[in-house]
Amino acid sequence: MRYLCAVSAFLGLMCLAESRSSYVADLSILAFAGTPVGKVVPFNGLDLYVSMPRNKSEKGPDPMRQFGVLMLPDVFGIQSTENMLLADSFARAGYITVAPDLMDGKPRTEGSMSGFNASEFFKSHGPSVTNPKVEKAITYMREQMGVRHIASAGYCFGGRYVFRALGLPDNKGVQVGFAAHPSALGDDEIKAIKGPASLAVAEGDTGMLTKRRVVSD
Fold first, then answer.
1. How far, in Å, are 27, 36, 58, 167, 204 from residue 146 at the CA level?
2. Within a 13 Å sphere around the CA of 110, how many CA atoms are in the beta-carbon half?
């Protein structure tokens, strides 16, 4: 089940950020098959996949509206059904969830690796291109949705930008972060964070070997 451990760990981290001592993980909120229930919302030239908690509208007073999840997907983007379902799972946990289209509608296609040039892909989607999209999504959450406290969850490509978002000023960035198998994450990006972060990496992850994980920790 894709992302199961990552999501479970992050939900726990969210609760630490909110100081909810009575929280008990409810794995029934996770979905890896089915039909996504969120919607794509355009905002200042950027598409956002937005998933709302059940029985909560996008307007009106609600104490839980001040908490939100910024989900930064892998190279399959918000076009991936699994990524949309993952965002919906965060929403079922009670959090407004927003995932930006970091690939401009042209993510890596799911399936065979044949024809996919990873080096060229990451080069064309570097920080100078991706940072503004992440910041724009944060602006949407704060100004359009009224979210005050943001936790970010990022996977592979998106994991790096969780750390970069944690390095932004508090009123412009996120307060807590979780990254699974982050790619191209630099030491300077780790040192710059201003809030708590959790990192999940598989034992045999060739993208972050044991020595590198020790340094990161």
1. 27, 23, 9, 21, 41
2. 9
Q: Kindly indicate the confidence band of residue 11, based on its pLDDT and cuts at 50, 70 and 90.
A: low
C-alpha span between 88 and 200 (Å, rounded): 21
**What's the rounded Cα separation, in Å, for the pair 100 and 73?**
8
Q: Which pLDDT does position 100 carry in this prediction?
A: 99
Query: For 137, which DSSP code?
Result: H
Domains of the chain: 4-216 (3.40.50.1820)
Q: Output the pLDDT for position 116.
A: 75
- Alpha-carbon distances of 123 from 74, 111, 129, rounded to whole Å: 15, 21, 10
Gap between the Cα atoms of 148 and 133, Å rounded: 19
User: Encoding tokens for residue 160?
Assistant: 């790096």
Q: Which residues contact 190 (CB under 8 A, 6 or more apart)?
A: 163, 216
pLDDT digits (tens, 9 = 90+) for 85-99: 999 999 998 899 999
- Looking up tokens 């340094």, which residue turns up? 215
Q: Which tens digits make up the pLDDT trace of 162-179?
A: 999 999 987 889 999 999
With contact defined as beta carbons under 8 Å apart, do 3 and 155 qualify?
A: yes
Nearest to 133 by CA among 170, 94, 98: 98
